[in-house]
Amino acid sequence: MAMRSIIIALFLTLAAYAQEPPAYYSTQQDTVPVEYVKKIDSYTKSGERLSNAGTGLFIGGGAIIALAAAEVIHYSVKTEKKKDTEEYDVVEGDHGALALIALAGVGCILGGTIFKVSSYKKKNRAEYYKEQLKKHQKADHSVSLEILPTFNPINQAFGGNLLLDF
To answer: Alpha-carbon distance 131 to 124, whole Å?
Structure first.
């Protein structure tokens, strides 16, 4: 008899909790907008980083080319001064090093161009996902339907709840 009372009390306790839908049914979020927001953030941040790196490379490459040009002008001026005094002694400089410096500057500018193009692609992809999110939010104003299973051990009934969202 005591065992029967314990089983009935157990079933009554289960019945009280069986009427509420589980948390994962009622708090289930729409994953599509969440994924779009994550992708928008990811592509925007990545595009900004690439854009900043490209700008830095442009500035660095321009500075390096300006340095190489200044050295070439410096050697040209020294040679011209020698010509004015009718001495044709040309000032020797390390022209190979200047060529490498200028080449490094051009490489920085080309790298900056590649980074900028990549950043534009990332930013365009973020804009695409923003548009997709707007389209999904417009379509989200329709009717949604959820079916939640229920179990009532007291009445030995099985069934479900139908939830409509407008």
So the answer is: 11
